[in-house]
Amino acid sequence: MATIDLEAVAPEAAIKSFERKGLEISFDWRDVDADEHARNFTVAKGMRLDVLNDIRVAVDDALRNGTTLDQFKKDLTPTLQAKGWWGKQLMSDPLTGEDRLVQLGSPHRLRTIFDVNMRASYAAGKWKRAKDMAGRVQSQSGQKVYLRYVSVRDDQTRPAHANLHGTVLPLDHTFWDTHYPPNGWGCRCTIQIMTERQVKRMGYEVSPDPEVKTREWFNARTGEVSNIPEGIDPGWSHNVGKSATRAEAGRVFAEKLRLAPPDIAALALKSDPDVVAEIQNSYGLFFDDVVATGKARGERRVIGAFSPRTVERLSDFDQFPENAAITIGDKDVLHLLRDAKKTRKQAVSESFVHNLPTELANAKAVLFDTEDPALIYVFDAQGNRKGKLVVRIDYYQRVRGTDGKRRDIRVNAARTAGVVQPENLRDQKYKLLDGEL
User: Fold this and answer.
1) Does residue 76 contact residue 67 with C-beta atoms inside 8 Å?
2) Selection from 195, 201, 180 nearest residue 134 by Cα
3) What is the per-residue pLDDT for 251?
4) What is the pTM of this model?
């Protein structure tokens, strides 16, 4: 198998792409769709978070230190063997409930894990480099940026991939949505980034729109039927760079949301439904990391924003928040998860905590607690009960910045959550700001 091509991509870009991935537990690679594979780090049969995290840390170290495949296997094998994740074992399939003899760790599997994650991370890094270059070149000279498909010209290359060799198309062409390499297990294809001027100087011609033929693929795990391009392996017909960029976009937008004036932030969240999905993706990565480490490091993430109506009505109670962004800290996430693991009927579920941005966007009502300045977000719960999330307004919180330093800021902080009877929310101290009970 050829070595990973590091040409034209800074290691830092590949590392950052990999760092943004969360953890996704799966029994079978078909249990996780293509886009989730790009956003999250997953290993089939990696059903334990500690094992999955060990493998992720090893891949991260390999990216940072330029570790060879042999060293990667040598370092990781004893750890996995000590935890029992090695060889063939009986394991219960969560989809069917059947016990199956499955292959866990092995030299071949570690080679596949190493190869797939290294190639995908560098491919995502290259995509980011191409996007950055496009923005710079467009502003300076008005030129476009092109990608050229490059396959390894030997007898191991798939004929379909060899036929794509030399395809030159603009960076924003839809072809790269499905054919941006790698395009299969063990695929060694890559791309070459060029400006319009470089394309002409090297004697290349821009390709006509490729004819993309598709075939039906039945996912026996999920029961879904999808159309995938011919020559592309199932699970690989996506752009790893775009998927990684979408996760980063959620984080960037969340930071802008936190810094924007309340009325602007509230309108921004309401006007673009895709924003909620991006914030959910970004928060999901944060949530997975918190669960994997089980430790609080003083970090916070944006999970939503006040609605325009909430911002307007808060002024009636002399409440003028510094911003409209709703945030949660890793310490509060762990607190909510500890409550979720208890058998008390007053605790919200773990899935609720994981989906906080989505839940906030679909809250049934927003109440203001006049005795203890806070917002109460109300949700439907099992039976006739209601779920609630308490958000403190302009709450002073010490956070760790990207520079590692801690500083005090004012945030609208999601602090506690629970399940209550509807009549508990009709207390006179609660004033309805938005929605209906």
Assistant:
1) no
2) 195
3) 52
4) 0.48
Tokens of 92: 């219960």
| Number of alpha carbons in the 13 Å side-chain half-sphere of residue 261 | 3
Q: Which CA distances in Å does 324 have to 281, 319, 401?
A: 20, 12, 20
- Identify the DSSP state of 345: T
Highest mean pLDDT among 268-272, 336-340, 414-418: 414-418
**b/e code 414-434 from CB counts within 10 Å (16+ = b):** bbebbbeeeeebeeeebebbb
Tens of pLDDT, residues 270-312: 545 567 777 888 788 888 888 888 888 878 888 888 887 888 7
What are the domain boundaries of the chain? Answer: 1-137, 143-208, 242-435
User: What are the Cα distances from residue 363, in Å, to 196, 306, 360, 386?
Assistant: 49, 11, 5, 11
Enter the DSSP assignment of 66. T
Q: Cite the beta strand spans of 196-259 per DSSP E.
A: 214-218, 225-229
In this prediction, residue 399 carries a pLDDT of: 58
Average pLDDT, the chain: 76
Helix axes 262-271, 273-293, angle to 10 degrees: 100
Cα gap 369→376, rounded to integer Å: 7
Picking from 323, 302, 299, 301, the residue whose alpha carbon sits closest to that of residue 311 is 323
| 244 closest CA partner among 42, 39, 40 | 39
Structure tokens at 50: 């500690």
Asked if residue 325 has pLDDT above 50, the reply is: yes
Residue 300's CB is within 10 A of a number of other CB atoms, namely 22
Q: Is-contact 288 349, C-beta < 8 A?
A: no
